Amino acid sequence: MPAPCPLCSSCRSYPLPVAGKAYHRCLACELVWLDEADHLDEAAEKAVYDDHDNRVDDPGYRRFLMRAFGEVLARVSPPACGLDFGCGPGPALVAMGRESGFEMAGYDKFYANDPELLSREYDFITSTEVVEHLADPRAVLDGLWARLKPGGVLVVQTQRVLGDERFRTWRYRQDPTHIVFFAEASFRALGARWQAGVEFPHQDVVVFTKP
């Protein structure tokens, strides 16, 4: 039987093997995901993240994050309350939010694991370069959506997968912690399920607005 899609649950998928690993692609929402048998364990996954050099005061890193945070600034006025989901060991976006007058928190399962933060409500939630690491993207994203207040925005930054041939040679795929890859259709399917507004202001940014 085809593997069920971890985002839309459709069983209409096909195998997409690459470099000795078992990937699958959903025919309904175009998501690509890596078979669980090829996932790193948590210790190996964290070791990859520990090797990242994402510093709070790095101007280049801040410019990168502004593609997502700029969308917050264009839609939400301080003093609103925000969460950066997957803030990592160098929570630069949290600092940027506070500097802009927002009440800002950061959650990360490895570096800032405070589950209480996931029970609060927020005016906006950001998640930059995180969703491609999620083994259960539907559960996590539905959980974040539930924490948004009416009228709130969820801003997700991740590179979007295109055709199968491009995927086979895609550098983004080669990071061993990247296990799920969203297409534009994947995000539109999410928006339809949430009855949310969906915008694509950048090639790697999507904005959902809660009714």
UniProtKB/TrEMBL annotation:
Which superkingdom is the protein from? Bacteria
- Give the InterPro entries listed for this entry: SAM-dependent_MTases_sf
Q: Which organism is it from?
A: Aeromonas sanarellii
| Official protein name in the record | Class I SAM-dependent methyltransferase
Q: Which GO terms describe its biological process?
A: methylation
Q: Name one GO molecular function term.
A: methyltransferase activity
Which Gene3D superfamilies does the entry link to? Answer: Vaccinia Virus protein VP39 (3.40.50.150)
* Family matches, as Pfam families: Methyltransf_23
Alphabetical list of CDD domains matching this protein: AdoMet_MTases
Q: Which UniProt keywords apply?
A: Methyltransferase, Transferase
